[in-house]
Amino acid sequence: MSVEIASERRLLSEDELRQVTLSHYPALHDLDAEGTLALARWLRAQRDRIRDIVAARRRARRGKATTRGVEAAQSSERGLAAKKQVFARALKRVNARLDRFRIARRREAVRANLHGALERTSRARRHHPASGRTARHGMQPADSERRSTVLEPSEIGRVSQAVKTAQARRDA
Q1: Alpha helix (H) ranges present in 63-157?
Q2: What sign has the CA pseudo-torsion 53, 82, 23, 102?
Q3: Residue 20, Cβ neighbours under 10 Å: how many?
Q4: What is the pLDDT of residue 71?
Q5: The predicted structure's pLDDT at residue 116
Q6: What pLDDT shows up at residue 3?
């Protein structure tokens, strides 16, 4: 659920509002990377400060801690929680912008590496190895991996002839 700019104006002081308005689109787009990083650090510090105040008030209300400089525990921390959400949403917008800067830097680095690789390959000496066996001289027999058994020509039909002879003897 988003917080309208009017409610941001109601929740924040003048200095805080000036910084948070920098996190909205037109102003955020005009910031450079260093300014965006400084804004993120400030927003993070404010969000953490408010979060700690809310947590201290809740602890004091439960009776676990004293209020040490924090306003009375009876007062509601609903306004402070809304203020913390304003800072958190502003920080989310600024972090998204920082991610875009990071992605652009990474893209430029990759592009520079690719251009360097292309330049190195275009300067390198061309190497064309021999193509190996080709079909220029016709088909070449592939070497067989089977064992070659050498048989005598007279042994080729010996078994089948012995079967024929034995069958003829039994039939007679």
Answers
A1: 78-123
A2: positive
A3: 26
A4: 56
A5: 97
A6: 59
> What is d(CA 150, CA 161) in angstroms, rounded to the nearest whole number?
20
Q: Are 84 and 54 in contact (CB under 8 A)?
A: yes
Which are the contacts of 20, defined by CB distance < 8 A and separation ≥ 6? 8, 12, 43, 86, 87, 90
- Is residue 43 within 8 Å of 90, Cβ to Cβ? yes
Q: For residue 28, give both structure tokens.
A: 């955020």
Dihedral, 70, 71, 73, 76 alpha carbons, nearest 10: -120
**Please, what are the averages of pLDDT over each run of 10 residues along the chain (172 residues)?**
77 93 92 96 96 89 72 68 94 97 97 96 86 71 79 79 92 86
